[in-house]
């Protein structure tokens, strides 16, 4: 695959509120906090307390199943594959639509489907209407896929329609930015090696994680990912991860840093799960990471 040439960002407030409550209880001295109270306080938390090992494993804590979606049964996008947790005891899950890149099929990045779903999300990996669709078209198709998931799909009863996200590779990544502008009620966007002729995204208000490759020659980070990240207002909550030595095609093979940060970002902003802040602030480091930027509060 090659390319041609009501937001909920409140990690600071949530942290302050929790600290204030803890201080109040400490002063009172007589209030016991029952096991599971933290999860009860946030009804969207799904799964056990996160660890590095959990995020870097090939699968998360939830068993998953999948089903194909025929292009003949949908409108606005080209069908695809749905991946979903089989556990029905957890309540509903957030959902994410993911687009492949220019000339590519969903199979090029399909490893992301079960990987993300196994952490407690419903995922639809889409086929685009044509392999040559531009980012604006892919953005509309991502939103059409989310609408299908919530309104018509066989797994719609498993989905919380208020907790939705988009992602994509290359032109699909550029499309995820387009979708974030078109539908500001999205909870998160994750462009991967994004390509778009539009370099300014000051109208994005959705928490956005951009992942780029240092050696990308198709959508060089200096003229794509870095510009996109810089133009998004800090009020939206944003992060930029650059992978050391990675080409434009890093999402097409299993990539643990990508999966780890995607899951942590979706957990934090789609599930409002503050247990995952530790993986976003200060963020990842190591030989695989060239650079990481974020809007975390300074120490």
Automatic annotation (TrEMBL):
Coiled coil spans: none
Cited Pfam families: PETase (PF12740)
Top-level taxon in the UniProt lineage: Bacteria
Keyword hit for Hydrolase: yes
Protein name: Cutinase
Keywords: Hydrolase, Signal
GO molecular function, one term: carboxylic ester hydrolase activity
InterPro entries: AB_hydrolase_fold, FrsA_esterase, PET_hydrolase/cutinase-like
Family statement: Belongs to the AB hydrolase superfamily.
Keyword Transmembrane: no
Lineage summary: Bacteria, Bacillati, Actinomycetota, Actinomycetes, Micromonosporales
Gene3D superfamilies: alpha/beta hydrolase
Leader peptide range in chain numbering: 1-40
Positions of the PET hydrolase/cutinase-like domain: 39-297
């Amino acid at each position: 695959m090659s390319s041609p040439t009501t937001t909920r960002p409140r990690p600071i407030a949530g942290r302050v509120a929790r600290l204030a409550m803890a201080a109040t209880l400490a002063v009172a001295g007589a209030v016991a906090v029952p096991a599971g109270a933290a999860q009860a306080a946030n009804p969207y938390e799904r799964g056990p307390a996160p660890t590095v090992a959990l995020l870097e494993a090939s699968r998360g804590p939830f068993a998953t199943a999948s089903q194909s979606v025929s292009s003949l049964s949908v409108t606005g996008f080209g069908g695809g594959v749905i991946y979903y947790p089989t556990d029905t005891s957890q309540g509903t899950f957030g959902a994410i639509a993911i687009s492949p890149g220019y000339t590519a099929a969903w199979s090029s990045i399909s490893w992301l489907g079960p990987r993300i779903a196994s952490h407690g999300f419903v995922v639809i990996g889409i086929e685009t209407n044509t392999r040559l669709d531009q980012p604006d078209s892919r953005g509309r198709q991502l939103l059409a896929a989310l609408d299908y998931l919530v309104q018509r799909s066989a797994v719609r009863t498993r989905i919380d329609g208020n907790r939705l996200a988009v992602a994509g590779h290359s032109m699909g990544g550029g499309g995820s930015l387009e979708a974030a502008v078109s539908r500001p009620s999205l909870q998160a966007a994750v462009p991967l090696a994004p390509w778009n002729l539009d370099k300014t995204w000051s109208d994005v208000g959705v928490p956005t994680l951009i992942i780029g490759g240092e050696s990308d020659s198709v959508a060089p980070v200096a003229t794509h990912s870095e510009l996109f990240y810089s133009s998004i207002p800090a009020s939206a909550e944003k992060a930029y991860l650059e992978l050391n030595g990675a080409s434009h095609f890093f999402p097409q093979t299993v990539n643990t840093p990508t999966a780890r940060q995607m899951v942590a970002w979706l957990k934090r902003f789609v599930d409002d799960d503050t247990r995952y802040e530790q993986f976003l602030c200060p963020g990842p480091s190591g030989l695989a990471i060239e650079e990481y930027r974020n809007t975390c509060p300074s120490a």
